[in-house]
Design goal:
Strand order of the largest sheet: 1-4-5-8
Number of helices: 11
Shape: globular
Structural class: alpha+beta
Number of strands: 8
Distance between the termini: 54 Å
Order of helices and strands: HHHHHEEEEEEEEHHHHHH
Radius of gyration: 22 Å
Length: 395
């Protein structure tokens, strides 16, 4: 199916058979997935129709006009933006059919067990071990992960672990789907500067993962992880937002509504950041159009870089614009939220929370290297540990 008119008709017929006003939300979402209207570029039977990615906008417009429920994408963003494309790209048919439907409908939340206390920017240095139990074929996993969003609500996790310590660090890793309800999984909150604990540290003690939950070949987990990481940066930095959406919106509204706060210097800075935000928004739109032709590339790293810088500069300007009022903070209550709500809180929250934007999803320093090497074609940094067995690396 490649015709927009045909897809529009199909969506309207679906809405007629499943009226949003009288159909239970969960039933509506499941039926939408089964009808191929979840993500139209996915294969038939997996929530799609094998149609061009660009036609998703046709479906979304019809559903929005009918006030149809969505799948709460912010709550399940890790599943949608990172787990799903990885399962689609490397999973078996059985894995795709088991995981994709409840992932998309939001019945099962996902998290990402990648970073570790000693392997964040240098993720390939990870030390979590997965050892094969020859009797059962299962993998026994031990280690610690950190900065794990949604671990406290997740049913499943995408996990990378070291399966061959004798191989160089990039080549001894395998990619798994981990059951977060396993008794060996312990999730502890990490309280942040905002007072909340949306992040967690996760301890894995003799966690048993069946080989049927391995994605990709043994030892090729780094290759699989690149799909996850590239999609992660696109999902963070390339989100679709309207003009004056995101962080620039509250600052622009405060400027218009409260003329007593204005100064010439603040006006010049606001105009520059407004233009930067609009450029970033349009660049994100262009990036999404490029995705129509294939998988995301390193350009997503550039978008994520810009996202972090803009959020921090805009939130700093907002605090300065509001003066003493900007120093107030609404609530330090220790909570474990399901989503990050930048625009639903006050300026103080936005200022503090945006500090994490240059760390999460890949540090800005690492992303600068990626842009330099993979986008601009500059020489790579010397890597003396590239061909050294992981077990021989200094730690």
């Amino acid at each position: 199916m490649t015709d927009a008119a045909e897809l529009r008709t199909r969506t309207r017929e679906f809405l007629a058979a499943h009226p949003p006003a009288s159909t239970a939300r969960d039933d509506f979402l499941k039926a939408r997935f089964d009808a191929g209207l979840a993500w139209v570029h996915y294969p038939e039977g997996l929530g799609g129709l094998g149609a061009p990615r660009s036609l998703q906008a046709v479906v979304d417009a019809e559903l929005e006009a009918a006030d149809a429920p969505d799948n709460d994408p912010r709550r399940i963003g890790i599943g949608l933006g990172m787990a799903a494309p990885t399962v689609l790209g490397f999973g078996t048919e059985e894995q795709k059919r088991r995981f994709l439907r409840p992932l998309w409908t939001g019945e099962e939340v996902w998290c990402q067990l990648f970073s570790e206390p000693g392997a964040g920017s240098d993720l390939a240095a990870l030390g979590t071990r997965a050892v094969r139990d020859e009797a059962s074929g299962d993998w026994i996993v031990n280690g610690q992960k950190v900065w794990t969003s949604s671990a406290h609500t997740a049913r499943w996790a995408i996990l990378i672990a070291r399966t061959d310590p004798d191989a160089p660090k990039h080549r001894g890793i395998t990619y798994f789907v981990c059951d977060m309800t396993d008794p060996g999984v312990e999730v502890r909150p990490l309280r942040q500067i905002t007072g909340e604990a949306e992040f967690n540290e996760v301890f894995l003690t003799d966690v048993r993962i069946p080989d049927a939950h391995r994605l990709g070949a043994v030892g090729e987990g780094w290759k699989v992880a690149q799909t996850t990481l590239m999609n992660e940066r696109v999902s963070i930095g390339g989100m679709r937002i309207p003009r004056e959406g995101g962080m620039i919106g509250p600052v622009a509204r405060a400027w218009r509504d409260r003329p007593e706060l204005r100064t010439h210097d603040l006006h010049q800075r606001l105009m520059k950041l407004w233009v930067d935000a609009e450029v970033a928004r349009l660049t994100g739109e262009r990036l999404r159009q490029q995705l129509v032709a294939g998988q995301p590339g390193p350009e997503g790293s550039g978008m994520k870089l810009g996202f972090a810088r803009l959020n921090q500069e805009i939130s700093g300007l907002e605090v300065e614009l509001l003066g003493e009022e900007g120093l107030l903070y609404d609530d330090w209550t220790m909570r474990r939220p399901e989503i990050v709500d930048f625009t639903g809180r006050d300026a103080g929250y936005r200022y503090l929370r945006s500090k994490g934007n240059s760390i999460e999803g890949g540090t800005s320093e690492v992303l600068l290297n990626i842009v330099a090497e993979r986008v601009l074609g500059l020489p790579s940094e010397p890597r003396t540990d590239k061909d050294v067995a992981w077990k021989d690396l200094a730690r």
